[in-house]
Amino acid sequence: MCLIIGTMIGAGYASGRELWQFFGQDSSLAILLFTIMFMICCMSIMKISYEQKAGHYLPVLRKIVGRHLTGVYDGMIILYLFTTTVIMLAGSGATWQAFHFSYRLGVLALIIPLILLFVWDVKGIVTVNSFILPLLIGGLLFVLILFITDQNLSMFAHFNETSNWTAAFPFTALNVVPLIAVLGAIGNRMESKKEIWVASVGSGLVLGVVSYLYNNSLIQISEDIILYEIPLFAILKHYPFEMMVFMSVVMWVAIFTTAASGILGLVTRFRDYLRQPLWVLAMVTIAIMLPFTSLGFSTLIEYLYPLYGLLNLYVLASLLLSPFLHRFKIN
């Protein structure tokens, strides 16, 4: 469950930029649809991964999209993991830059612990996520509820505004692809099918509640968001500097967990071919990514995320239909 949430909540999500890009106004129904679809997709991916006893995502992907499209989506997942991890590195730079540190120093501050994490192989990322995810979710909820309470905002003021419901589909499609990569790498570590239900429903509910509260808060300050590369800072301007420092740490943790998930998907995919320790593969992968971080955080999200969301709609449809096809044994 922590691994799923850690994969989902990265720089784009924690900063508010990704939520505002897809949802924004009139999106209460879209967030509800996302929550339901996300649960179903997680169940489908974990069930296939468990049955395949997979150590990387390729057998899981083949089962989802079929043999003929596996090569296409394999390339797309590799590109997605690569570019989104670049976004995480850029997000770390942008976070440090907000405190007048060097952008490059912010990128470097993420690289070093990322490489060290993979010294402990896959177990390292699972263990770290289980420790830092409560801090991440707790910090986000604390600030959002405090903001709603202090500003005397209604949590349900925009509940009936539902015209943007179609945003749920590209948003969910965008976020299930990294889950295929990450959950496909731990199929051989799952011990019971009960884990599938707990992880899928639990992570879906947590993400649904946080997404609704976050988007509801951003709607209240929509006129200020254009002034900030990181929308979360538009909320934090109402609070003392110490609060901004605390939430910047929380956001950096979100960046770290998603970057770790992206690297995990990439290095496990190529481990069988290169036969090197994961930390060596992680170091080489990050070195290749570094030149692309100069493109900037918000620019990468603005153009790449909607594109991936559209391209992955077929994967989303396959995952949503998977439980029904399996039930009626249609292959």
What does this structure look like?
- This is Membrane protein YkvI.
- The chain crosses the membrane at residues 30-50, 71-95, 101-119, 131-148, 168-187, 196-214, 243-266, 278-297, 303-325.
- InterPro entries: YkvI-like.
- It comes from Halobacillus amylolyticus.
- Keywords: Membrane, Transmembrane, Transmembrane helix.
- With 331 residues, the chain is mainly α.
- The protein is built from 16 helices and no strands.
- The chain has a single domain (2-320), classed as Hydantoin permease (Orthogonal Bundle).
- It starts with a helix and ends with a helix.
Question: What is the total tally of β strands?
Answer: 0
Share of helix among residues? over 70%
Q: How many structural domains?
A: 1
Q: What value does the Rg take, in angstroms?
A: 19 Å
Mean pLDDT: 82
Per CATH, the class reads Mainly Alpha
The chain-level structural class is: mainly alpha
Judging by the overall fold, what is the CATH architecture? Orthogonal Bundle
Q: In the CATH hierarchy, what is the superfamily?
A: Hydantoin permease
Sheet having the most strands: none
Shape: globular
